[in-house]
Amino acid sequence: MADFKPFDRLCLIGIGLIASSIARAVRERGLAKTIVCATPDQTHREAALSLGLVDEAFASNAEAVRGADLVILCTPPGVMSLIAQEISADLAEGAILSDVGSVKQTIAESIAPHVPAHAQFVPAHPVAGTENSGPAAGFGTLFQDRWCIITPVPEGGDEAIARVQAFWEAMGANVELMDPKHHDQVLAITSHIPHLIAYNIVGTADDLEAVTKSEVIKFSAAGFRDFTRIAASDPTMWRDVFLNNREAVLEMLGRFSEDLTALQRAIRWGDGDALYSLFSRTRDIRRAIIDAGQDSAAPNFGRDTGPDEGDD
Amino acid sequence: MADFKPFDRLCLIGIGLIASSIARAVRERGLAKTIVCATPDQTHREAALSLGLVDEAFASNAEAVRGADLVILCTPPGVMSLIAQEISADLAEGAILSDVGSVKQTIAESIAPHVPAHAQFVPAHPVAGTENSGPAAGFGTLFQDRWCIITPVPEGGDEAIARVQAFWEAMGANVELMDPKHHDQVLAITSHIPHLIAYNIVGTADDLEAVTKSEVIKFSAAGFRDFTRIAASDPTMWRDVFLNNREAVLEMLGRFSEDLTALQRAIRWGDGDALYSLFSRTRDIRRAIIDAGQDSAAPNFGRDTGPDEGDD
């Protein structure tokens, strides 16, 4: 941190949850002298300015990137390639182009051809977020103690990678370098499949005739409400994730469905030992996640009971 | 509350999360003069006494129920029928027998034959809990603003039902009366299927070769960690739930799998509109759950960001 050299001009393309969290973290920690953003949404431009997130807000991506030494694509993954094409001619000499996409292989492959020879491309993915969207949803500690995965490509040299790594570390994140294909497999199981089955069960519940929607809502504290949180995430971004990480998602989904069929069979045939055996070993993973500092150990994530209520 | 007539002697069979939460709520609100419990586990008996949860702790269920005017079965559902048989001869004249089982139809049917003519049976299910187990895991506000479902049977008269209802209301719960079969359908979708798929995905993740367990743990903040919480719930209790609510669980699971197959197909064929359409409508359910007071509106359930961090 002490020797982090701030960027002169940071340009964020998009100003949603992730971009607005970057803007706050960068402001709070002095990681760039000027911050600008680009978004076609006038309301978001006004919000970004009035919240003090950016110094300038542009409607045009090409105008926004001029003179920036760090440009980060923070839009849904599906439009990143198009934006890279739009801004290509306007990227400054020596500029670093990065992104925050949740899928890396297909996205990086579609952006790379648009990166001019005088710029560097360093794909990255901060593994952090909430179910909320928009410029007001961000907060400066979103990346604190979370992981940011950088997936190097030939279009970005070691120096640019090191600068992007230092940038994320300065925002409190831990950085890991990973092959893009492997990144997409890891995220398929830790993020994409969980989101898919959360969206799916909320949809299934919504369609039932035997149980009303109001009953589902009333009695959601029995477990269902945990799933609705991530099923409230941004629909455009998640559509793009599944369209762009098809191979890994379908592979993991096949495993998940096979395992679920085995559980279904155990229930049908009353095989209590098979159920007990699975239900016991899953506890260890929870404990390991808490020990690794990746979740709260408080019951119900701490949402129901303050510390004063829980220990009397 | 003002006119709630305390029970003389409350007997809790089992002293885990739910029973120890009842004991705390009853103590704090003066809902019974004496509280006793029964458990074969000596460590739990000692904990219950040293935590001040109960006045007496018995190893024998039959001894524990003597003289109690309210007896609540708080064990895993699978042993409730056996316990009802054990205590049958010792239930006091006019005693109310209740339970807290997450499955009602099969359990109530298996308990009912053991209820003597001089006692009343009122099955109930408080829809509340955490992933933690044991006498130290309980807290007195667990039932506050949560629902408790009573599923009346012929073995319990209106007066006994009213007393059990008043008891749960005095602990802060809202009470709803429901047919046992319908209860089991509602809970299948709001609780049993969510637990099953959470257990399942944690198991699937644990078995992968392409992604290591340590990677799953490191990057769990991307969504997976939400699922591990309920997959850390008590394995014995959940085995019993699935063995005893087979019909409703298999029916709902069939729906879930069908819907998941449709999503899988949409991903395979790149049908972005189908994905977007589902991902949009699931947001409304989340909002309705928050509006109904059944979950926190704070991002990430409030676990990552205190109010001071989130709004700067």
Structure notes:
2 copies of one chain form a homodimer. Chain A has 312 residues and is of the alpha/beta class. In chain A, helix 7 packs across helix 11 (246-268). Chain A has an 8-stranded mixed β-sheet with strand order 3-2-1-4-5-6-7-8, with helices on both faces. Chain A has 2 domains: 7-179, NAD(P)-binding Rossmann-like Domain (Rossmann fold), CATH 3.40.50; 182-296, 6-phosphogluconate dehydrogenase C-terminal fold (Orthogonal Bundle), CATH 1.10.3660.10. The relative contact order of chain A is 0.10. Chain A is 49% helix and 13% strand. The two termini of chain A are 42 Å apart. Chains A and B meet through helix 7, helix 8, helix 9, helix 10 and helix 11 of A and helix 7, helix 8, helix 9, helix 10 and helix 11 of B.
Strand content of chain A: 5-15%
Range of helix content of chain A: 40-55%
User: C-alpha Rg of chain A, in Å?
Assistant: 22 Å
The gross shape of chain A turns out to be: elongated
Side-by-side strand order of the widest sheet of chain A: 3-2-1-4-5-6-7-8
